[in-house]
Amino acid sequence: MSTIVIPRRSFLSALGLAAGTLALGIGSEASAATPRMAPPKAPGLPSGDGGFTANVFVHVAPDGTVTIVCARVEMGQGVRSSLPVLVADELGADMAKVKIVQGDGDTIYNDQNTDGSRSVRTAPDAVTKLVTSGYDEMRKVGATARTMLIAAAATKWGVPASACEAHDHAVFHSATKRSLGFGELAALAAKVPVPKAKDVVLRPKSELRHVGGPLPLLDAPDIVTGRALYGADVRLPGMLIAVIARPPVLGSKVERYDATRAQAVPGVKKIVAMPVPSGPPAFQPLGGKISTLVTNSPPASFRPNLDRCASGAGSMRAGAPRPAGGGPTETSRGCTLAT
Amino acid sequence: MTTLVLRVNGTEHKLDVDPEMPLLWALRDIIGLTGTKYGCGQALCGACVVHLNGEAVRSCVTPVHRAEGGSVVTIEGLSPDGSHPLQRAWVELAVPQCGFCQAGQIMTAAALLSKKPRPSDSEIDESLAGNLCRCGTYTRIRAAVRKAAGIPT
After folding, report:
1. pTM for this structure?
2. For residue A279, what are the CA distances in angstroms to A167, A201, A206, A252, A284?
3. Is domain B85-148 annotated with CATH 1.10.150.120?
4. Is the ipTM of this complex over 0.90?
């Protein structure tokens, strides 16, 4: 089994840190010409610690801690392990010294969508916007940081960068048996110009330690204790909850509905007939439906049998007190929201 | 509206609610314990399983008044620090995929192990037959229950 250890606690603590160190692009031609000295927009990464922010995905702190952003959304496919490990393996990092932080919604990461199991297989290039492989892009992220750490060590030792290599969280010059840890090199690497894309060379696959092997499930401790937060668990101030009466048939529309009794339920704000979509369903909601907006404090008498659709075939219960899909299986001739 | 008193994870709560409100709603929306999940709302999937007086119940169809004066344990209260043998086994074997059903799975298994510390495979299967996992983690779930029970694999 895996021997990778990713400290859970550190993941959360890293989120609170502000941004602002040396910003560099992702090994692009554009950013290579003029390294930007202004504080980077690298949300989620540590800053002001004298460390090395290689790009918006990876930071090396003076104590050696490497922080890697997973900018994609975890939906159970394991990207919070798989994407950062691509960066870490290219970097030559020791996973025990790696923190993985979640990239909040930010255009700096380009597409953060999670669908179709494509986070690793395809992702838009951060610079060109072209869709390439997330597998390759994350490796480039790590390889860029590695190239800069090696350049920092080579300069310090006065040896060619090509004579140095990075692994086990350090840069080594085997000819003189010298090494410097990533943390020791952080401040120096922060002053190294971003390499041109052509100068960033990916490792041969044989040097990737964890890629392709078993990885720890980063969120497992939170999932098994009920702390993992899902979309339906989020409560925001003033948030309303919509209860949806869905149609039983694709493309159906609401003929009529009687909202009188549903509207009378304490806490219910409004009954709304949703617009009927046109064209192919694609990602559109399935036909016309009725939405009930209730306050964020659950009305006391708001019950699952609120979604009762009356049809030509008799009374049917949608049965879902929350928008969770499912519903009656016959054509609805008119929906009555009953309590 | 009635004031109901129930104990949840060792803490007494006085709830001013419709006694017919599903226990799940009281736990998630009033008490704020969101570890228990809403899946189907019809006792078909097992995502909402909690312990009521030691028994596994489906909180989405359990009126909160049934817990009046009783003791409820949710996934948050199964152990103080995630150290219940099932929780440890779940992490070690990386059981969850998306994780949404896992609180219900674990609570169902915990109720089983409290009565049958070393259940047979068929008893494990029977106990968990009503807990659905869309990701299909069933084989790891079974393995983790056996591991937690100290059954050699």
Report:
1. 0.77
2. 54, 47, 49, 13, 9
3. yes
4. yes
